[in-house]
Amino acid sequence: MLMDHYYQYGVSPERLQNNPNLSDFFKILTTSTDKDDKVYNCTIQANRYRVTAFQWHPEKNAFEWGLSEFLTRTI
């Protein structure tokens, strides 16, 4: 699946794992890299709640406007 990649800010896996409040609440499902090859969390899920957070657009039609520099990741 292609995914849109419009983000300038994100939380690194290390930062989430080193924060007890975040790491107790969330587990990391997917990561990606930005245009500068910095790794960030793409999808996280609450451990005890039915909550999933995305930093990508699962509803987005990847070919709506054609290919662009933002459609750089596949999962």
Question: How does this model look, in words?
Answer:
The chain is α+β, with helices and mostly antiparallel strands and 75 residues long. Helix content is 16%, strand content 31%. The chain has a 3-stranded antiparallel sheet with strand order 2-3-4. Strands 1-5 form a two-stranded antiparallel ribbon. The longest helix is centred in the first third of the chain and has 6 residues, at 13-18.
What spatial form do the alpha-carbon principal axes imply? flat
| Terminal CA distance | 5 Å
Task: Give the structural class.
Answer: alpha+beta
Helix run count: 2
Could you tell me the number of beta strands? 5
Mean pLDDT: 80
Query: What is the alpha-carbon Rg in Å?
Result: 13 Å
Helix content: 10-25%
Please state roughly what percent of the residues sit in beta strands, choosing from under 5%, 5-15%, 15-25%, 25-35%, 35-45% or over 45%: 25-35%
Q: What topology, given as strand order, has the largest sheet? A: 2-3-4
What is the helix/strand order? EHHEEEE
What can be said about the biggest beta sheet?
3 strands, antiparallel
Low-confidence residue ranges: none
